[in-house]
């Protein structure tokens, strides 16, 4: 009898230990939206739930079970046609942090001890009509280093962006703060000025730099924003949010490197097993995939993602980090084996050139980026499983997509080395950009990889000042990847002449901009 009792106790103990190593719960339709699962509220089947590595689907009653360790974030993968609750901080509430001992001691606060795992961790969803055509707002690198720059972000960007209508949600692509992680909570407060919720990507300036292992580099980020790697569905699109910073750099334990951990790659693979091939896949991360000889990104990680996505015909990646704007297209030469080139939009930033430049009428730095792109935000328009992207320059009309630089006056019938330059902010070198003078014939402009002369002239103003002005000298110009050049005609009548530039983007849309110059009689000497 004693042996039987001992055997039963051992079995009971083993089941108890097993239960403690697994998290269980329900995904349910919260019909009264009180955040509590009640007996009459039904579970939702076939919904993904993850511990950051494994992904399981709920059963017919909405129940799931997942292995859990001592440092996990359990989250639901929002299905289309549902929404997750949004808290007072305007951030989606779709996760549970499980850190029984809390975060390690770091300079910036992490998560307090969460204690014993609850008996059931449930996730509430609300059923909604979710159209397949929608718009998401995309921010790149707010990156305020202090409260002054945080106020400039609020006044110069958010107070303008919040006037947009019909935005389903926002994605901020990392560097939400500039190393001071105490700015994360007030940053969240500023985003609350918009009427939509935000998904926030972790950037290299959002890390705990005193962490000694990569797993601890996002402790403060997790406390405020939740998991740094997760996914969700909206319409016929599947979004994957990724922390792509390896810290410390595994090559020499100094600095950081672009890439993914094995756990993250396992999550992507396990997650995609439950995503239909006809979905639009949208990846959002901070450091772009673009690199030469692995200087910025670990190539094996990029290749693994390429291999996992090769059977998806509609794929888009969103990145930031560079404080420039460009489109990167990856082909078979880069290891991408999909039918169409893999498109990465490296988004312009809301901080522009790090809050530099002259002060505008709103009391905010102009902050034009080093490639001549004005600071702004992007609008990702999704129609079923296709997409288009608009770039909205802060303070400019929606149609403003081109900056023209040309001489103000040229000598009649005299040759000149001057030219007409068109910075097409959302352009790619394969786009068609043309110009004409007055009502003359349209002529093709030549794509050039050179600094934007308009931006270079603005920087030179600071070097020629005899007295300092408010603001800070911008960074030196770099080559733009969206600049075109045309010749200027001097064999015209004396007087003013109109320049018209038109550009057709990769989505088939045409934009125009105009400028003018004067043809004058040469001055005798």
Automatic annotation (TrEMBL):
<keyword id="KW-0732">Signal</keyword>
<feature type="domain" description="Calcineurin-like phosphoesterase N-terminal">
    <location>
        <begin position="38"/>
        <end position="103"/>
    </location>
</feature>
<feature type="signal peptide">
    <location>
        <begin position="1"/>
        <end position="19"/>
    </location>
</feature>
<dbReference type="Pfam" id="PF16370">
    <property type="entry name" value="MetallophosC"/>
</dbReference>
<protein>
    <submittedName>
        <fullName>Metallophosphoesterase</fullName>
    </submittedName>
</protein>
<feature type="domain" description="Calcineurin-like phosphoesterase C-terminal">
    <location>
        <begin position="344"/>
        <end position="511"/>
    </location>
</feature>
<dbReference type="InterPro" id="IPR029052">
    <property type="entry name" value="Metallo-depent_PP-like"/>
</dbReference>
<dbReference type="InterPro" id="IPR032288">
    <property type="entry name" value="Metallophos_C"/>
</dbReference>
<dbReference type="Pfam" id="PF16371">
    <property type="entry name" value="MetallophosN"/>
</dbReference>
<dbReference type="InterPro" id="IPR051918">
    <property type="entry name" value="STPP_CPPED1"/>
</dbReference>
<dbReference type="InterPro" id="IPR032285">
    <property type="entry name" value="Metallophos_N"/>
</dbReference>
